[in-house]
Design brief:
Structural class: alpha/beta
Shape: globular
Helix content: 40-55%
CATH class: Alpha Beta
CATH superfamily: STAS domain
Pfam families: STAS
Order of helices and strands: EEHEHEHEH
Number of strands: 5
Strand order of the largest sheet: 1-2-3-4-5
CATH topology: Transcription Regulator spoIIAA
Strand content: 25-35%
Number of domains: 1
InterPro entries: Bact_StressResp_Reg, STAS_dom, STAS_dom_sf
Distance between the termini: 27 Å
Number of helices: 4
Largest sheet: 5 strands, mixed
Radius of gyration: 13 Å
Protein name: UDP-glucose 6-dehydrogenase
CATH architecture: 2-Layer Sandwich
Length: about 120
């Protein structure tokens, strides 16, 4: 079971994912984020995956698709908090997620957006 929350931090959306996402949940998240970015004219999305122990190929592709969709809506997506074992598994599966920005922490991810956004 997973819980996902979206917090608006100025013009950046912070998405936290706690637990594992089902394929259905991942697709719903993709649709919700695209709608939120368009409605709020967000310039960025931070997706905190530190609460996830497993990222399978479907979820990796969905994260990549979220970044592609938000980019088309003039927003940047940064994945933060990926665990080392998750990163190693993705590489072993050949899923390097080219073009997807990553950062170790939320503060590091916020720095990707420059001035105007401050961590809480």
């Amino acid at each position: 079971m997973s819980a996902t929350s979206v917090i608006e931090m100025g013009d950046v959306l912070l998405v936290t994912v706690q637990g594992e996402l089902t394929d259905h949940d991942a697709v719903a998240l993709q649709q919700d984020l695209a709608a939120n970015v368009a409605e709020r004219s967000s310039r960025g999305v931070l997706i905190d995956v530190s609460g996830m122990e497993i990222v399978d190929s479907f979820l990796a592709r969905t994260l990549h698709d979220i970044a592609a969709a938000t980019e088309l809506l003039a927003a940047k997506t940064v994945i933060v908090g990926m665990r080392p074992e998750v990163a190693i598994t993705l590489v072993e599966l050949g899923l390097t997620l080219p073009g997807l920005a990553t950062a170790l922490t939320v503060a590091d991810g916020l720095a990707e957006f420059g001035d105007g956004v401050r961590p809480l």
